[in-house]
Amino acid sequence: MAKTKDLYAILGLAKTASADEIRKAYRKLARQHHPDVNPGNKQAEERFKDITEAHDALSSPEKRALYDEFGMEGLQPGFDAARNREYRRYADSGQGFQFRRSAGGGGAQDSPFDFGFETTTRGGRRRAPSPENDRGFADILNEMFGGGAGVDEAPPTNTAGQDVEYPIEVDFLDALRGTTTQVTIRRPTPCETCKGTGRVGRRACNTCAGTGQVDKREKLTVKIPAGVGDGARVRVKAKGGTGANGGKPGDLFFVVKLRPHPLLQRDGRDLTMEIPITVREAVRGATITVPTPSGKVQLKVAPGSQSGQRLRLRGRGAPDPKGGEAGDLYVRVMVQVPRDGDAPTLDEALDVIEEAYGEHPRAHLTL
After folding, report:
1. Which of 22, 25, 128, 255 has its CA 20 to 30 A from that of 291?
2. H helices, E strands: number in the chain
3. How big is the CA angle at 155 (ends 153 and 161), to the nearest 5 degrees?
4. Alpha carbon distance 143, 105 (integer Å)
5. Are 65 and 137 in contact (CB under 8 A)?
6. How many CB atoms lie within 10 A of CB 102?
7. Of all helices (H) and strands (E), which one includes residue 66?
């Protein structure tokens, strides 16, 4: 008879576990006990075999249903669920059970068979299975019908590969202007040993632990569109997870992380920067040169400009990666006083400036 095993316990799951929980548990345990990870460890090798056997049974809806109803016996080759249910019905009713088959000469004859179960006879006595009959119901049916009574498995279906995300750090100005960069990643690809099927013969592939995929390093050329912001996702088609059984591969998404810039700050597509001006430029006004991501421009500072005042350069912000209008660049002018306080004429100049205020700037400052 089939060896008794608790396949759910092997995977550390309850009987109500979902298909996704079974898959995740198998992958975790298979990687932990894979022979390549534990060379020479016989215990880990046997544990890996049990994990693979449990996954093979519980990942198939048909096999799982048979296991839940009949245990390991239901997974044996040639097992006939309908005949087994009929036998159990007769056994539970106390009527015993005889299997009728046609004799070679053509007429029918009754031939009693011991199907490897302990049953109750009409007299109330219990009969233990004999060594000859310990082969079990499935083994006898296999001899009678040539081993063709197994449960048909559903053909494998095409499954699309999963999308994969990778972080990528991009210079602030490169993100504004657009750039191309080389990136080396590790991505799942079809296992060469099993050709992505996860099986070698009737057993799980040892190379990929039955997943059909292995991680490989790959060098990619990634185009960063002009104007991408922090957290943007740049898509590379068909470079994600490999599809199963001929399914389409998933996509690869690079998640952009911008390196900070010493002068520029970004809010959506708008940029802000601080530009120092002199006292005279602030008082009299001036035209100053301002560097922008797209080149230098001339900016007019009005007479009497105050420190912190914002001036706008329309369309000089971040471009729209989707082709829309670019943002604006806001210049905050910051009045910078002379650092050399010992200049001979500075005190006289400051006295003149002080008199020009008329009323002190803090005269009406209250809380």
Report:
1. 255
2. 9, 17
3. 125
4. 19
5. no
6. 10
7. helix 61-70
